[in-house]
Amino acid sequence: MIDYKKEALVIIGAPRHVNLNGKKISPEMLLSSALAEPMMYWLAQSLSQRMHGDNLLGVRVIADHTGVSGAKMAKSDPQEVEKTRISSGLGLASGLLILCESVDQILMPAKLIPDFDYDELLMDFRKVVRRDYGQDAAVSPNDFHLNDLIFERLHRPISELPNREMANRRDGRGV
After folding, report:
1. Residue 117 per-residue DSSP state
2. 60 or 106: which leads in pLDDT
3. For residue range 120-129, what is the model confidence (pLDDT) as tens digits?
4. Counting C-beta atoms within 10 Å of the first and last residue's C-beta, which end of the chain has fewer, N or C?
5. Is 169 helix (H, G, I), strand (E, B) or coil?
6. At what angle are helices 5-12 and 92-112 packed, to 10 degrees?
7. Closest Cα to residue 42, out of 146, 162, 175, 172?
8. pLDDT tens digits, residue range 38-68?
9. Cα 16 from chain centroid (whole Å)
10. Helix (H), strand (E) counts: the chain
C-alpha cells in the first residue's frame, strides 16, 4: 500500500492547520491512521465505486471497535486490484486523483470556514461504523449512513455559506 497523503495535501493546497476539539493541529495529523485516515480512504473508495464501479486504491476500510477512529485500513488482494486497474484502463495516477478529491472534500470546510471543528465528524463516523459493522467487517463504500454523515458534516456547512458574489458586493469589493 503506497501512502499518497502527503502528495494529496500538496496537490489540493491544504490549509496550514485544522481545528479538532478546539485545538489547532496539522492536516497531516488529522489524516493520521488514529483519526481521519479510515474516513479519507472510505470516502475515496466511495468515489471510486461511483465513478468506476470498483475500488482502484488497493486498500479496504474495516471496522475496528478498539481504535479511536472506529476503523482501520487493510490491504486489498494485489492481484484483484491489478485486474481491476487493467480492466478499467486506469492506474495508480487515477487512484491518486481519487484520493486527492477525498482529501479535498474533507479539508474544504477548514479552507472556507476558519472555525470549523472536525470533532463531531470524527466521533459520528466512529459511531456509525461501530453501530453498523461488526469487528473486522469490511465497511461498504456504498453505506447510506456514512454518505449521509459526509453530506451533513462536510458539504452542508459549505452549502450554507453566503454566496461569495453577494458577500463581495456587501463589503464593497465589487464583483
Report:
1. B
2. 106
3. 999 999 999 9
4. C
5. helix
6. 60
7. 146
8. 999 999 999 988 887 777 777 889 999 998 8
9. 18
10. 9, 4
Q: Helix, strand or coil for residue 58? A: coil
DSSP string, 8-53: HHHHHT--S-EEETTEEE-HHHHTSTTTTHHHHHHHHHHHHHHHHS
The answer to whether the CB of 108 falls within 8 A of the CB of 12 is no
Q: What is the pLDDT of residue 43?
A: 95
Using DSSP bridges, classify how beta strands 18-20 and 23-25 pair: parallel, antiparallel or unpaired.
antiparallel
Domain ranges of the chain: 5-161
Tell if the pTM clears 0.85, that is, is over it: no
